[in-house]
Amino acid sequence: MKVVTKVTPPCRRYNRHEFNMSITVFEKGSKMNRRMYLEKTASSVASLDRNELTRRIRGFKGRFKLDFTSDYLQKQSVDRLRHILLAARISSKPHN
């Protein structure tokens, strides 16, 4: 008499398959959260005027200090000020 046993692959035997799926979902969620953060940050910076941009750059509190003089900031275009603030906010956000 022959006994046939069904051997489950290692990925199912140790629940690796479900574990890998949850990691994939987490990674996709993390990328989505990052993209949403970037879009929200860019939109909020784009809506600011020169005075508000200057105030936020001067009062920026992040992982590093922005040390621009008032004279330097007054000479910059509004687009350049937006670029500085957006780069600072994106760079100071902790990466997952």
Q: Which blocks of ≥5 consecutive residues have pLDDT under 50?
A: 13-27
Radius of gyration: 25 Å
Classify the secondary structure makeup into a structural class: mainly alpha
Average pLDDT level: 76
- How would you describe the shape? globular
Topology pattern, helix = H, strand = E: HHHHH
What is the end-to-end distance? 57 Å
Largest sheet: none
Helix content: 55-70%
Q: Could you tell me the number of beta strands?
A: 0
How many discrete domains?
1
Q: Report the portion of residues in β strands.
A: under 5%
What's the number of helices?
A: 5
Describe the structure.
This protein has 96 residues and is mainly alpha-helical. The protein has one domain. The chain is built from five helices and no strands. The longest helix has 31 residues. It is globular and about 40 Å long. The termini are far apart. About 16% of the residues have low confidence.
